[in-house]
Amino acid sequence: MNFSLKEIATATMVLFAVIDIIGSIPIIIGLREKVGHIQSEKASVVAGIIMIAFLFVGETILSLIGIDVYSFAVAGAFVLFFLAIEMVLGITLYKDDAPETASVVPLAFPLVAGAGTMTSILSLRAEYYVENIIVAIMVNILFVYIVLKSSKKIERKLGKSGLGVIRKIFGVILLAIAVKLFASNARNLF
Question: Which one of 62, 126, 141, 180 is most buried, by most CB atoms within 10 A?
C-alpha cells in the first residue's frame, strides 16, 4: 500500500473543485423545488460507484479505442482549464438541459460524476497511486452527501455572494491544477 497524505489531499482538492458541489447548490435547490424530495443517499452511493468503476476500467476502455493515459490526461487538462475559466469568470461555455426529475440520473450522473470528474480521475491516475485516489473519492462522496442533505441550510448561511466567492476560489485552484496536469503529462506524449 502506498498511502500518501499529500496525494490524498491533492486528489481530494482536485475532485472537490471539479465536482463543485457547493457551486451546484442552486441546481440542487431548483431540483428540490421541482420534485420535492432528493434521494441524497442513493445519489451519493451511485456517484461513488461510477467514479471508482471508472478509475479501474477507464484506462481499459481507452486502450480499446487506442488512446494512452497521457493523451487523456492532456485532454483532461484542457477540460479542467475550461471548467476553471467558467468558475472564475462566471460564464457558461457548456450548457446542459435541465433534468426533469431529482433521481440518481441528474444528481449522481452527470452532476457529481460527470465528464469533468471522469477526466480528472483518469488524469489523477496518471500521477497518483490508486488507493490515494479511492480515499479522495470517498472523502468527496461523503462531502457530497452532507451537502445534498443540508443544501437548504448552506444556501441560507452563505447567500449568493458567499457561494460566488467559494466558486471563484476553487476555480483558481482548478486552473493551477490544469496547468500542472498539462505540463507533467505533455512531455510524455513525445
Answer: 141
Characterise 20 by phi-psi region: left (phi > 0), alpha (psi -120 to 50), beta (else).
Answer: left
Sign for the CA dihedral angle at 50, 56, 59, 61 comes to: negative
User: Measured between alpha carbons, how far is 7 from 144 in angstroms, rounded to an integer?
Assistant: 20
Q: 13-50 pLDDT, tens per residue?
A: 999 988 988 878 877 876 777 777 888 999 999 999 99
Task: Give the helix, strand, coil percentages of the chain, each rounded to 5.
Answer: 80, 0, 20
Share of the chain above pLDDT 70, in %: 94
> Of 156, 158, 180, which Cα lies nearest the Cα of 167?
158
Q: How far is 170 from 80, CA to CA, in rounded Å? A: 12
C-alpha–C-alpha distance, residues 131 and 137, integer Å:
10
